[in-house]
Structures are given as C-alpha cells and as structure tokens.
C-alpha cells in the first residue's frame, strides 16, 4: 500500500498540463487550459485543465480527476501502476512495504476476534432484554424488586408527562405492558 503522504507529494510535483499536453493539444484560456477531450469525439474544446487545482474536467462528457486518474482512464493502468509511473517521472521514492511480523499479525487477529466475540455477546444480550421487556408474556415487576420499591418510596411528580394509558394494540383491561409505560 502506498502511503497517502507519498501520493500527495507526487500530485504536488507533477505538472498536469505537461502530462495531459502529451496527448491533447491545450491552449491557455484564462487561468485554465482548454482542449478537445481525449475521452469522446468533439469539435469544440470542452476539456479544461486547471494547473492551480491540479485537476481536469470535461464539460461535454463529465469526466474529471487528477493526474493519477488521467493515467488510469487514458492508458488503462491500475492505481498503483499509475502512481509508480508518476513517481518515477517526478523523482519521488515510494517506500517499500515491510511484511508484518508473524507475532504482530497473530496479536492483531486475536484482538479482532475478541472484539467480534464481544459484539456478538452484546447483540445477544440486547436481543434477550428486548424480547423480555416487550414480549406479550412480560409481567409487571414483583413487589420486592428495586424498581417497585423506589416507586413506593416516592410518588410520581404532579403533572408528570408519563403516560398511564395502555399501549396501542392492547385491550383496556390488559395491564401486562402498562407497567412499562409507567416507568418511562
């Protein structure tokens, strides 16, 4: 993998006008250069090259990009091939990748599998509590539960906005889920 810093340095050093000018006849037009688009047939110039922004754009077919993308589209090169060609042209050394030591790779895999196990456990716990709280068989908390004890100690504030009606879809006589609405 080529570091982002190296790619940015290559793009800063490459002269996009010269690079594209090898295949397209460009003329200065204000701050930009204009020419016939190499990606489609046209009679009037709609291909613009901006040396300040280091980009190109065709107003006819909509193709746009930078020096690397131009080489990829025009010459059919892969991204690493295009970057290496431009690096050789502008004199930038691309650092060689060092293989990862086996011990470090094993540690990274262990951490990744541990994280995956923790996420799976969290999903299982979430499903369990969601099913338990919102299932039709859910019963109100027992009289000895901490939630019930805290409700006994302090009455709800007057004028509170907590709904006391049964949730939609259940009968008025059913109080199975109404305790959930009182908690919220």
Q: Can you walk me through this structure?
A:
The chain is α+β, with helices and mostly antiparallel strands and 184 residues long. Helix content is 46%, strand content 9%. Strands 1-2-3-4-5 form a 5-stranded antiparallel sheet. A hairpin with a 2-residue loop joins strand 1 and strand 2. The longest helix has 33 residues. The chain is elongated, with a radius of gyration of 33 Å.
Helix and strand element order: HHEEEEEHHHHH
Q: Tally of extended strands?
A: 5
Task: Report the principal-axis shape.
Answer: elongated
Protein structure class: alpha+beta
Descriptive key words:
single chain; 184 residues; 9% strand; 7 helices; 5 strands; alpha+beta
